[in-house]
Amino acid sequence: MHYKVVIVGGGSGGISVAARLLREARNLSGQILILDPAGKHYYQPLWTLVGGGAVNREASEREESSVIPEGAVWLQEAVQSFNPEENKVMTSSGKAILYDYLVVAAGIQIDWNKIKGLKESMGKDGVCSNYSYDYVNSTWENLRNFKGGNAIFTAPSTVVKCGGAPQKIMYLADDYFRKSKVRDKAKVMFVSGGTKIFGVEKYADSLNKVIERKEIETHFKHNLIEIRGTEKIAVFEQLDTKQHVEIPFDMIHVVPPMSSPDFIKSSALANAEGWVDVDKFTLQHNRFSNVFGIGDCASLPTSKTGAAIRKQAPVVVANLLSMMHKQPVVKEYNGYTSCPIVTGYGSLILAEFNYTNEPDETFPFDQGKERWSMYQMKKELLPLIYWNGMLKGLM
Ligand code: FAD
Asked: Where exactly are the transmembrane stretches of this chain (predicted)?
């Protein structure tokens, strides 16, 4: 089997690239193969609001077949290995697929099993997570059933997708606990393997004020390593002293550690940390020039979000087309990413920044302020932009 362009992963990045390529080069119709074993496609940014009970889980899910752009071919199989020297990928059923150009868009791997006892407790014993379609409803269940005590929200020391998501659900929970009149019986804690609340100073300043106002207790440099579900104990490792700290919980929202997918880590495409080793500006692979990486699996030193992909996809497409026309690869991505940090039902700080870690804002007002309008944009407008704009190669 041979295709001009093979795209590994039909998530946000893979579909955006395929749709845009076909829009800009109709002659590629029938020559683009998308490989993805998943039958469903998810708009994951909605899961924060699903966990908070503001949106139904089903609104985030569509059939994968419905997002495959016309002119692209979808093979519902996982890629098992890469052989970039021979321009070849192997699928899980043993098919060899040859390509002229390869785009790797396989997302990030959630390492649930790196926390002892987590899998066994997930969805019960007060343990929940927004980081999976299967478990996201358990977050809302926990919020509704919470009667007081310790509500813990964790973040790992690893890179995660959407760096703000571990705290967004905590702010919604705090708001909900106030509405349901249990907040005065609760201790809300953010226990994080990171060293601060947010990487960009402007937004960190705003968030620290939110935390103070909401009377949330923070513990940094604490990595969750074990859940003892039936005892309702969470065990953290203090990252400097390596001491184990046990904290009892009544509910705990867990964001597990994440890493590059194993099949990428073990491949010739990976850098030392396991990510697809691409140039941070052109998104072209640093060793195999006919390979590009996009999205969560790429080695880009910026926050991993769908918003970032919206700016990466045009770069990948322009550079791919340049290569096909034997032109130099010149289009550059500046590291733009965005994190709409929900701070309650009806309030949001819209963080936008780039490789300089300085704000790179869209609107002519101070986005470091909590705003109702920005919350509405996240809830109502961004899903429409995603399904009808980004996935259609229009924006
Ligand atoms: P994905 O969209 O995850 O797609 C990867 C695809 O690769 C999947 O379809 C998968 O099946 C496929 N795949 C995996 N392995 C293989 C294989 N071996 N072979 C072939 N295919 C494979 N982003 C924002 O911009 N704003 C937000 O507010 C926001 N909030 C978030 C909140 C939560 C709770 C979560 C979980 C994410 C959030 N994100 C947010 C992040 C955003 O969803 C991701 O950054 C984005 O989806 C990444 O796109 P991707 O294409 O890299 O990966």
From this structure: none
